[in-house]
Amino acid sequence: MELKQLEYIVKIAEENNITHASEKLYITQSALNQQLLKLEKELGTELFHRSRTNWHPTEAGEIYLETAREILALKKNAYNRIFDLTNRKKGYLSIGFTPNRGSTMFSAIYPNFHKKYPAIVIEPKELSVSQQLELIERHALDIGFLTLPEKQRKPTLSYKLICREEIYLATPSSMDFTSCTSRIPGYDFPVLPLKYLSEQSFVLMYKESTILSVINDLFRNAGFKPTTLFETSSTNTILSMIRAGLCCGLIPAHYVDKTDSNISFYSLPERPGWEIVSCYSKTAYTSQAAEDFISLASKYWKTKM
C-alpha cells in the first residue's frame, strides 16, 4: 500500500464523488480514476459503487478504507510527535465546530493561534455534532468542539470539559407569567417552572440536535408534550419566532440577550444545561499545537458564559 494511494481512496470516500475528490487533491479526475482502476485491478474487485452523483464503498472498499485510515492516522501521529520533539511548529490540524457560534469562536481565536504557529495549516469545518463525532472516530477530524450531554458521549473518544452552559426558558415579553415566578438567590433570572407553559406553542431544535434529549427530559418532567410549531437547526430562528410573539423556546446561555425588550428570559428550577467540550480520538496523538488551540478555545468560551 502506497501512502499517496491510501490518501486518494480515503478522499474519494469522504467526498462520495471522484470529481470533488480530484479537486480537493489538486490532481486531474482522469489521473485519480487511473489510480483507482489500477488498485481495483490489483485487488481483483471494485472498491466503490459508482453513480453520477454518489460514490459509496463496496464491502471490499469498507475493509480497505478501515485499514487505510488507521495507517494514515499512524503516519500523522508519528509526524506530530517528531515535530513536537524537535520543536518544529509545522503540520496540519483539522478543526470541527458547529455553525454560528462555533464559527464565531474560530474567527476570534485563529489570529492568536496563527501568530504562534504560522506554518501549521488549519482546515476549519462547520459540522453538526454527530458529523464531528463520526469523523473523529474515522480519524478524519483532529479536534471537535461540541455541546453534548454526558449520556451522549461515545466511549471510544476523549472529551475535555471547557465549561457548563445553562439552558433558559424564553417567552415573548407580551406574555405575563409574573404570578408563576419566584426569585431564588443564585439564579440569573426569575424562576418559572415549565409546567406553567403547557398551553403555549414552542419552536424546538431539530431531531438530530444533541440538545433535544435535554429538552425532552424537561418536558417529560413537566408532565406535558409541547405543541410544536416547527423544528429548526438554528437557535437564532427560535429567537426570531419568540420575538415575533409566535412561540416560546429553550435557549442556551450563549444566545441570551438581556437587552432584548421583546423577549423575557427565565431560569428553570432544575437549572438544566449541557457541557461545551473539546473532543478527539483516544488513540491519536494530541500535538502541542492542538493542545494550544484547545486552550485558546477554552479561554474564549469561559469569557462568554
UniProtKB/TrEMBL annotation:
One of its GO terms (cellular component) is protein-DNA complex. InterPro entries: LysR_HTH_N (IPR000847), LysR_subst-bd (IPR005119), WH-like_DNA-bd_sf (IPR036388), WH_DNA-bd_sf (IPR036390). Keywords: DNA-binding, Transcription, Transcription regulation. Pfam families: HTH_1, LysR_substrate. Belongs to the LysR transcriptional regulatory family. Residues 1-58 form the HTH lysR-type domain. The keyword Transcription regulation applies. PANTHER family: HTH-TYPE TRANSCRIPTIONAL REGULATOR CYNR (PTHR30346:SF28), TRANSCRIPTIONAL DUAL REGULATOR HCAR-RELATED (PTHR30346). GO terms for molecular function: DNA binding; DNA-binding transcription factor activity. This is DNA-binding transcriptional regulator, LysR family.
